[in-house]
């Protein structure tokens, strides 16, 4: 252990002992920066939650594809169900796609009010052979 032999005090630490130093002053309260950071994080999280909620579109209307037939070269047939509030009308967009996932046909279907769960069978005209048909979206009107 290094010692200060020039002082003649024997073996003593060069930098001193903890008792040789003055006590540290009390640190000021640093709670305010943490509160500001927490508020900023809460605002950002709330904003992101709002964006994610709005990105779902209209969650009160949903459609489920039961079956589709895309064997014809100029049309495709889809059977689907729509779930919505009984007292509201809706509009659904059907989309037909080819092998490259390009749209080859689409159609908008009006869903009347009166019942909440409805089943539809619709034909979509296509510009070329479709390989898939799906319900793109449904919105309340």
UniProtKB/TrEMBL annotation:
Keywords for this protein: Membrane, Transmembrane, Transmembrane helix
InterPro entries tied to this protein: DUF4307 (IPR025443)
Region (Disordered): 1-21
Listed transmembrane segments: 31-53
Domain of life assignment: Bacteria
Name listed for the protein in its UniProt record: DUF4307 domain-containing protein
The organism of origin for this protein: Microbispora rosea
């Amino acid at each position: 252990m290094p010692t200060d032999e020039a002082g003649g005090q024997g073996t003593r630490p060069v930098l001193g002992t903890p008792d040789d130093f003055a006590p540290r002053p009390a640190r000021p309260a640093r709670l305010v920066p943490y509160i500001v950071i927490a508020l900023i994080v809460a605002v950002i999280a709330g904003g992101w939650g709002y964006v994610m909620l709005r990105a779902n579109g209209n969650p009160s209307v949903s459609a489920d594809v039961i079956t589709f037939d895309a064997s014809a070269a100029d049309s495709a047939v889809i059977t689907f169900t729509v779930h919505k509030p009984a007292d509201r009308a809706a509009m659904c967009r059907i989309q037909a796609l080819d092998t490259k996932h390009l749209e080859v046909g689409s159609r908008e279907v009006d869903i009347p009010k009166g019942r909440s769960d409805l089943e539809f069978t619709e034909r979509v005209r296509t510009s070329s052979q479709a390989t898939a048909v799906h319900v793109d979206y449904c919105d309340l009107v």
